[in-house]
Design goal:
- By secondary structure, this protein is α+β, with helices and mostly antiparallel strands.
- It contains four helices and four strands, in the order H-E-H-E-E-H-H-E.
- Helix content is 29%, strand content 15%.
- The chain has a four-stranded mixed beta sheet with strand order 1-4-3-2.
- Strand 2 and strand 3 form a beta hairpin.
């Protein structure tokens, strides 16, 4: 019962109409181009290898507060609640259970707001 309330807490006030998740392979080099610095590319953020299209949120645009995450798998930074560039990397498996839960919470938060467009191919 508590889990339902918890996941409900991550729901946006108005649920966006999301497309079915895609499993398209996305290379690390392509993900890097999706950092908001080129109007030719969308803005992507990856969490645990899952790529979200955050193009509609100016917080991830070049002047936005969370631009540091754009074009990267920012799993470690999100788990650590860090905005440090050196923490914006995909490795998270070595983190403590508490940080892994924070990361899972972020994944839930993103999955309720942004379209899943693919998976990072390493």
């Amino acid at each position: 019962m508590a889990q339902t309330g918890q996941s409900k807490g991550f729901a946006p006030k108005e649920a966006p109409k999301l497309n079915p998740p895609k499993n398209t392979p996305i290379s690390v080099s392509h993900l890097a181009k999706c950092d908001g610095n080129s109007p030719s590319y969308p803005i992507y953020v990856a969490i645990m290898g899952t790529v979200f299209d955050v193009s509609g949120n100016t917080a991830y645009a070049p002047e936005g507060a969370y631009h540091i995450f754009a074009g990267k798998d920012a799993s470690r930074a999100l788990a650590l609640s860090s905005l440090k560039p050196e923490d914006c990397r995909p490795d998270w498996e070595d983190l403590a259970a508490k940080e892994k839960q924070v990361l899972n919470d972020w994944f839930t938060f993103f999955s309720k707001r942004y379209n899943i467009v693919g998976q990072v191919r390493r």
